[in-house]
Every structure is written in C-alpha cells, then in structure tokens.
Design a protein that fits this description.
Layout lengths: L2 H20 L6 H9 L20 E4 L2 E3 L2 H10 L7 E5 L5 H7 L4 E6 L2 H13 L5 E5 L12 E6 L8 H5 L1 E12 L5 E8 L5 E9 L24
Helix pairs in contact: 1-3
Length: about 230
C-alpha cells in the first residue's frame, strides 16, 4: 500500500472513531477526492517529507505545523462547500489546506501573518498550479474585507474567541470553522453558521490541538464568551 492510500484509509478510520462526536459516518466524496489529488509531500520541508502521509501534524518552520490529514479533511467537509464558492482561510501555513480547498471551490483567499511562510506558500501554490488561491501577508483576525462576504471561512489556528470581523464577513447561511481555546491547552473545534436574522448557530464538534492564532486582538485576555463583541 502506498503512502497516499494509507493516509486515506487512516482518515476513514478516524471518521469511524469520531462519528459519535461529529455525527458523520463518512466525509463528502468531493473532499476525499481533493485529499487524494493534493500531494501532501510538496508542502513539507525536504527533510520531513517522509512524514507526509502519516495521519499526524508535522512542523513546517517558524513554530508552525501542517495539520493532521484527518483534521484537514474534516474541516473541509464541515464548510459544506459548492464549486462556485469563495472562501477565506486564516493561517495559510504551508498552503496545504488552501490547496485542498482550491479543488472544492472557485476561489480561496488566504491570510498568513508570518511573512516567510506567506511568501513560501504563495510561491509553492503558484509552482504547483493552484491558480485560484490568493495569499496575503496580514493579520487574519480582521479578515479580508475587500473580498467579503465569503461563502465560508476556515481558521487553521486556535483563537481565544471567535473574531467579530470574521462573523461580519461571513455571508448569510455560510459557515465558519474555527478551533477555539487556550494556546497549547484544550481547544474545541467549532462550527458556526450565520442565520438570516443575523443570529449564530454554534456547535462544538470535537476536541483538537492547534498552534495559537497570532496577531489577534486582546489575545492576552481569555473571554468567557466564545464570541467577542468587538475589538478596540
């Protein structure tokens, strides 16, 4: 069995093990096809490519990681995308999650606060032909207003609360997938859906472990509410 097939089998196994938490017996066929099409080894440093198809995170430099394949697939599935969608990603990292999403939607806008990672992921995605992904070096907390509203938003680092600017830039009926919790502590993967009346349907999916979202507003304060009303 090659590494890619082993990774896909591991994702299926994780889906089965966590179905009592996620409510999912399987992931969308489009998502699994995207996971199969994107060469994960291309998004890892050369000396760590032997880890590419293991079902776990791996370091990519600058204190950041490429997420576990199962989590990439699950978060992509939770967005419930359509081929015509425009998505916002907060935390480009290596560009792997953006590459997977690019197979599912029309356009991905991705923000990365670490300049070195932003430049490398931009160049990598261009070299590999992911022409519907735009990467910008910026603070993801505030989103990318000029391209809003988005048909979905995904955050690939843990925030202490759900940033209000991201809620504001989410289209009615669209979904936000975000890990919420303390850095290097217990975190919850949250699914947020914006209702027609502006209310939010917030669900906890399962426990996760992500690197912290940097550049956030008042991250030194842990708020009791998941959603912070404002940033001043």
């Amino acid at each position: 069995m090659n590494g890619l097939q082993r990774m896909l089998n591991d994702i299926d196994m994780e889906v089965n093990l966590t179905r009592h938490l996620t409510g999912k017996d399987s992931l969308d066929d489009r998502v699994m096809a995207a996971m199969k099409q994107v060469p994960r080894h291309e998004f890892l440093p050369a000396d760590l490519r032997y880890l590419a198809y293991d079902n776990g995170p791996a370091p990519i430099g600058s204190g950041q990681t490429i997420s576990q394949p199962y989590i990439v697939a699950l978060m992509s599935d939770l967005l419930d995308t359509k081929p015509t969608d425009t998505l916002l990603e907060i935390g480009t990292g290596s560009g792997y999650q953006a590459a997977v999403l690019s197979k599912l939607v029309a356009q991905v806008y991705s923000l990365e606060i670490i300049e070195d990672l932003a430049v490398k992921s931009h160049n990598r995605l261009n070299r590999l032909g992911y022409n519907n992904v735009a990467v910008r070096n910026d603070n993801g907390y505030f989103g990318w207003q000029e391209h809003a509203p988005f048909d979905g938003i995904i955050v690939t680092a843990a925030a202490p609360h759900i940033p209000q600017p991201l809620i504001d830039q989410l289209r009615i009926g669209a979904r936000l997938v975000i890990p919420v919790g303390l850095p290097y502590s217990y975190q919850k993967l949250m699914l947020v859906e914006k209702k027609a009346n502006g209310d939010l349907d917030i669900q906890t999916i399962l426990g996760v472990s992500f690197v912290p979202l940097t550049g956030t507003c008042n991250t030194e304060t842990v708020h009791k509410k998941i959603l912070k009303p404002g940033c001043h």
